[in-house]
Amino acid sequence: MNEVHRIIQERQSARVPFDPNQKVSKEHLLQILDAGRWAPTAHNMQNFDVVVVDDKEVLEIIGNVKSRISEVFLRENYEQLSFSKEELLKKKTGILGAMFPPAWVDPSKMAEVARESAPMPLTQSIRGSPCLLIVVYDTRKRAPASEGDVLGFMSLGCAMENMWLMAQSLGISLQILSSFAASPVGKQIKQILCIPEALKIAYTCRLGYPTGSTRYLRVRRDIADFAHHNKFGTKGI
Ligand SMILES: Cc1cc2nc3c(=O)[nH]c(=O)nc-3n(C[C@H](O)[C@H](O)[C@H](O)COP(=O)(O)O)c2cc1C
User: Fold this and answer.
1) CA–centroid distance, residue 104 to ligand 1 (Å)
2) Confidence band (pLDDT; 50, 70, 90) for 137?
3) Could you tell me which of 143, 122, 145, 146 has the C-alpha nearest to residue 134?
4) Would you say residue 1 has pLDDT above 90?
5) Whose CA is nearest to atom 9 of ligand 1?
6) Residue 68 and residue 188: Cα distance in Å, rounded?
7) Averaged over 210-225, what is the pLDDT?
8) Is the Cα dihedral 192, 156, 183, 61 positive or negative?
9) Average of per-residue pLDDT across 210-228
10) From the CB of residue 138, how many other CB atoms can be counted at a distance below 10 Å?
């Protein structure tokens, strides 16, 4: 296995607390941003800006923003869940229901959870991370002839993966936090960080050094499950 392949396979979501006192160095941050800079983007539009947040006070202010869980999230999240390791290994896609509080994965309680749960401060998502990369894009500048700006969104994903692989190669853990983009949370974060109105938060990378193991059961389809040879339906190559 070559070095790139090894880093691709070892990259994983780090859904554990990070050590707030172990900073990500400026040198490493610059390497991660440089990797983002060299990502492929539609028409080379480089359609993103990144707000690097590593000031303790700013992190605390963001951490005090509260978010609510929506019923739509709970119901659509449920579709991707397996409820045993055996089920997940068989399905080869999705994630384990055990990652979420029991009430979140009980369809009969979802409406009530969404209605009754107290809003959660983002500090529970930041979990000690000493550095957030908040990736934003300009909603007015879509990639040429790209319906719904699909090509623009793909480009944002390319930047994400380049930065993630670089972080991995530097021994820095990363978790994507999508919830920072959703309104009204995204709006409040934009205000805190003085992000112009026309820009939208695409995703947030939570960076740092974990306080415990990040390992968990990760599954993928086999190549023969998704690759088709010369004609769709002729599986494998
Ligand atoms: C666009 C996008 C949004 C994601 N949002 C979240 C998120 O909000 N929270 C989270 O823990 N992981 C998030 N992830 C990570 C995926 O859940 C994760 O990559 C997937 O389950 C595979 O696991 P792995 O990263 O450990 O290989 C996101 C990934 C992508 C590409």
Assistant:
1) 18
2) very high
3) 122
4) no
5) 177
6) 13
7) 97
8) negative
9) 97
10) 15
Residue type, 136: V
Q: Span 116-122, mean pLDDT?
A: 95
What pLDDT does 236 receive? 81
The closest residue, in CA terms, to atom 3 on ligand 1 is 178
- What are the structure tokens assigned to 90, written together? 């068989």
The helix/strand/coil state of 216 is coil
**Is-above-0.85 flag for pTM?**
yes
Sign of CA dihedral 56, 62, 65, 66: negative
Give me the pLDDT at residue 32, please.
99
The conformational region for residue 208 under phi > 0 = left, psi -120 to 50 = alpha, else beta, is left
Dihedral angle of Cα 237, 157, 81, 128, to the nearest 10 degrees: 140
Residues in the chain: 237
Burial level of 225, CB count in 10 A (0-12/13-18/19+)? Answer: exposed
Q: Quickly list DSSP for 118-187.
A: PPEETHHHHTT-SEEEEEEEETT-PPTT-GGGHHHHHHHHHHHHHHHHHHHHTT-EEEEEGGGTSTTHHH
pLDDT at residue 106 above 90?
yes
Test site for ligand 1: of 13, 70, 217, most ligand atoms within 8 A of the Cβ? 13
